[in-house]
Design brief:
Layout (H helix, E strand, L loop, with lengths): L2 H15 L9 H18 L3 H13 L11 H12 L7 H13 L9 H10 L8 H14 L6 H14 L5 H20 L2
């Protein structure tokens, strides 16, 4: 598996083809999820082989936004299935990657450790210092798409979402859950 080459390919594709209105689901988000997945995977003791599969899934997980928001996970899998064979990924490896991508669909539904790590990496920001900066990017994107009308609606949806969200790995529970709980209180205080 040529992870670096496949990563370079997909990041360049995202830079060229993602709609400009996506202020959150862009290249920076894919890189952020990659870096978070790498950190969590090491802490959770994933093998080098598992890490390669995980990091590939992290880079491809939102590539389907090139086509559409709705069903972007399936589109991401189509892109992975189309391009990863050219980077020496076997069909069985591509399906493992696609299973990880599909696990990130909300509400998240991971079935194994790699899927849990990708899900936690995808929402790692909920318990980080840059939460409000990234949250504002997502708010802006959803407004541009006509999915949120105002800040009050956004705060209500965000409080509900965060209150119903759970991290899956011991690493994320330890590192992110306490700060996420603080942010939930702050968001609720704005309602």
């Amino acid at each position: 598996m040529q992870v670096k080459q496949a990563g370079k390919f997909i990041l360049n594709k995202l830079r060229r083809e993602l709609p400009e209105r996506l202020t959150y689901h862009g290249v920076d988000h894919s890189i952020d999820v990659y870096e978070s997945a790498q950190r969590i995977a090491k802490a959770e003791g994933l093998s080098n082989y598992e890490q390669k599969l995980l990091l590939t899934a992290a880079l491809f997980h939102d590539s389907g936004f090139i086509k559409s928001r709705e069903g972007h996970e399936e589109e991401s899998c189509k892109i992975a299935r189309q391009h990863l064979p050219g980077y020496n990924y076997r069909p069985v490896e591509i399906e493992i990657i696609c299973d990880m991508i599909m696990a990130t669909r909300l509400p998240q539904s991971p079935h194994n450790r790699m899927e849990e790590i990708l899900c936690d990496a995808d929402l790692d920001y909920l318990g980080r210092d840059d939460f409000f900066a990234l949250s504002n990017k997502l708010y802006s994107e959803l407004c541009r798409e006509g999915l949120i009308e105002n800040e009050e609606e956004w705060n209500r949806e965000q409080a509900d979402f965060m209150g119903g969200h759970s991290y899956h790995t011991a690493t994320s529970i330890k590192l992110r859950q306490p700060k996420k709980e603080q942010y939930i209180k702050l968001v609720k205080s704005k309602i």
